[in-house]
Design goal:
About 85% of the residues lie in helices and about 0% in strands. It has about 140 residues and is mainly α. The chain has one domain. Helix 4 packs antiparallel against helix 5.
């Protein structure tokens, strides 16, 4: 009968793509959780039209998070200097994409600005947490 130790030794390590898929599912769960938790308070404070701004703010952060994750996917097994550069590039891309998308939505739509910016910021932190956990896990397992 195999022991837990032998099972752990023969288990196949997850690929970076599998880690990304896990991160994506976690990010979608965070987005759904934020919508569920914030729906009623946002409507009570900012009115019934504010839910679209809330969803748009969360969407902006989710898209920016995906853009920020791309350099981490592309790095593969490159030298350590390139891997460190990929981490910094991912952070810069995430911030730039968030600001660019947020400015485009703020000035290009008639959505309520306060809930839009508030939920973009809240969800940014949630998605950053998920991405940080995934990146740390990849560093610890030698994938990044």
């Amino acid at each position: 009968m195999p022991t837990l130790e032998s099972a752990m030794m023969t288990a196949q390590p997850r690929s970076a793509t599998a880690d990304f898929a896990r991160w994506a599912v976690t990010s979608l769960a965070i987005a759904a959780g934020l919508v569920a938790v914030g729906w009623i308070p946002t409507q009570k404070v900012a009115g019934p039209e504010a839910w679209t701004a809330m969803v748009a703010g969360i969407g902006v952060s989710l898209i920016a998070s995906i853009v920020g994750a791309l350099p981490l996917l592309a790095v593969g097994q490159k030298p350590p200097a390139q891997r460190h550069t990929a981490i910094l590039t991912a952070m810069a891309l995430r911030v730039a994409a968030t600001l660019g998308l947020l400015l485009a939505v703020v000035f290009g739509s008639e959505l309520a600005r306060k809930p839009l910016v508030l939920w973009a910021g809240i969800s940014y932190l949630g998605f950053l947490f998920a991405e940080t956990l995934t990146t740390v896990r990849q560093i610890q397992t030698g994938k990044l």
